[in-house]
Amino acid sequence: MTSPRTNALDWLTHARSLFEPAMRAAVGRLDPFLGRVSSYHLGWCEPDGTPVTSPAGKALRPGLTLLVAEALGDHRPAVPGAVAVELVHNFSLVHDDIIDRDRERRHRPTVWSVWDDTTAILAGDAMLSLAHEVLADEGGPYADPASLALARATREVIRGQARDVEFERRDDVTLAECLAMEADKTGALLAVSASLGAILAGAPRHVVDGCHTFGAELGLAFQIVDDLLGIWGSPQVTGKPVFADLAAGKKTLLVVWSIENGGDAGADLAAWFATHGSRTVVEPQELERAADLIEKAGGREWATAAADSHVATALAALDGLGLDEAAHHTLIDLAHFVTERKL
Predict the structure, then answer these.
(1) For the chain, what percentages of helix, strand and coil (3-state, to nearest 5) are there?
(2) Mean pLDDT highest for which of 135-139, 232-236, 287-291?
(3) I need a labelling partner for 197 at 20 to 30 A (CA). Which of 44, 70, 207, 323 fits?
(4) What is the pLDDT of residue 280?
(5) CATH at 112
(6) What is the pTM of this model?
(7) pLDDT over 90 for what percent of the chain?
(8) Residue 331: inside a domain, yes or no?
(9) Residue 2 predicted with pLDDT over 50
(10) What is the SS3 assignment for 109?
């Protein structure tokens, strides 16, 4: 058994070495063209297939799956789960880039912008199907409950994305609706990332449920921080332009909170979205004004506090689960890492 790391970034780096060989083997099952497209998206090659080492994500979701299993005894049974959640995550990213018309991710051109929408859709579909195949092929007593948990989470992720798109067309989105959307869009996959580690480790129901709650709350914190980064994040950190979410007309949680609770600044923000939110091109000074209104309304301060609150709830869910002490410490560090990404 691998001894757990006490630092979140160390663990995530180590986790990639644990699951990536299986991830590459899984992607190798795809037909040559979609395998190449998927490998490009994952940072393994150039569009023509030339191998390359490109910037990759932090592997938060598979790292969480493996860390939970490690905290319960051994990461190895959870490797198929780590591969599956990473495939589902990347399916959603490829499709999100089409929906948002984002041309860059991780400082590289997105799949649809290199090829076309049809190719990107097919590559995303291929990764989604492959995720469930990887879990089913593992067999054993925990494959079926793991597959069911991932299928439900995927449905919730898609529901969250559909709501997100719908909200861009509405002027009456409530805070409760926005919270439910973000719980689905981001919380569901982090929740199943944690619970799959417990399921595949053979943990009892109360432990699986506690890990699911940990992941769900961590997911909400992650999404709130992501929403902050989507407005004020440095392009060097996010790989996207500053004010990207405002340019896309996204009514994120902190935007909706600001409109509902921000007084005059909130009213002005609502008027801004009514005027500019659906326009194809918004001038930079208009985006800066919207960001200033959110800050004046208290949205930025509120979102930071809300993310911290969700992290606290996530950590409380781990109490009494009988986790290995060192791995538990790493889970705590991972939770704080989520809310400490640089703006």
Answers:
(1) 75, 0, 25
(2) 287-291
(3) 44
(4) 66
(5) 1.10.600.10
(6) 0.90
(7) 71
(8) yes
(9) no
(10) strand
Q: How many helices (H) and strands (E) would you count in the chain?
A: 17, 2
Phi and psi at residue 43, to the nearest 5°: 85, 20
Rg (CA), the chain: 20
- Domain range for 117: 8-338
Element housing 104 (H / E)? strand 104-105
87 vs 89: CA distance, rounded Å: 5
Let me know if residue 84 belongs to a domain. Answer: yes
Q: What is the 3-state secondary structure (H, E, C) of 70-92?
A: HHCCCCHHHHHHHHHHHHHHHHH
Residue 292 falls inside a structural domain: yes
Q: How far apart are CA 252 and CA 246, in angstroms?
A: 9
Rounded to 5°, the CA angle 255-258-260 comes to 110
Query: For the residues 202-224, what does the mean pLDDT come to?
Result: 95
Structure tokens at 226: 């992501």
Is residue 237 a contact partner of residue 341, using CB atoms and an 8 Å limit? yes
Q: How many domains does the structure of the chain reveal?
A: 1
